[in-house]
Write a sequence for this structure.
């Protein structure tokens, strides 16, 4: 039978493991706090303990532009794949979206799922340049459905990323290549 002390140790171990992964992937301190509940001072202590240089830590505001997901055929294809990954991890469900939008830290379970989705994307697209904060921004962008959204290919049933500023019917990468549309992007 596990005691409360065991539960606390398990939770702290999970928080530290997630913090380490986020630090290794260069997430910002504010993001690490939101995902783990660890204060900046606790993070600094852990970085010192783990030998993670302060120079590796990105500073400033997290990226907010969604154009990286719509700037090319490849970016739209990666965005559609990212959306599928997010669905698989339950990150586009209303309760997950509500938790991500809150100013207080997300649950540890949700933080771990977000990171698992991020790692899955990185494995599928090793040349991609997605940052962890881009994933969160992407999810929020899909939720707002103002700049980007999800839809179906006009020619097949594939999920596509829609650029709300583009008036053309959305098509998936495969159909675009077959039809030779949208130019060389």
């Amino acid at each position: 039978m596990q005691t409360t002390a065991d539960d606390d140790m398990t939770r702290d171990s999970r928080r530290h493991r997630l913090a380490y992964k986020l630090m290794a992937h260069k997430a910002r301190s504010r993001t690490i706090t939101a995902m783990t509940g660890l204060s900046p001072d606790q993070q600094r202590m852990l970085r010192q303990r783990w030998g993670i240089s302060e120079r590796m830590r990105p500073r400033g505001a997290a990226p907010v532009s969604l154009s990286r997901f719509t700037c090319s055929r490849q970016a739209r294809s990666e965005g559609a794949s990212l959306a599928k990954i997010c669905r698989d991890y339950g990150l586009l469900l209303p309760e997950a979206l509500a938790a991500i939008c809150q100013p207080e830290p997300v649950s540890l379970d949700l933080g771990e799922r977000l990171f698992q989705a991020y790692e899955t994307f990185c494995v599928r697209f090793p040349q991609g340049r997605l940052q962890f904060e881009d994933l969160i921004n992407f999810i929020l962008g899909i939720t707002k459905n103002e700049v980007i959204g999800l839809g179906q290919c006009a020619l097949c049933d594939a999920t596509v990323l829609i650029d709300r500023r583009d008036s053309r019917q959305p098509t998936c990468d495969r159909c675009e290549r077959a039809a030779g549309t949208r130019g060389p992007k």
User: Anything to note?
Assistant: Residues 67-179 form one domain. The chain has two domains: 4-56, 67-179. DSSP finds eight helices and two strands in the chain. The radius of gyration is 18 Å.
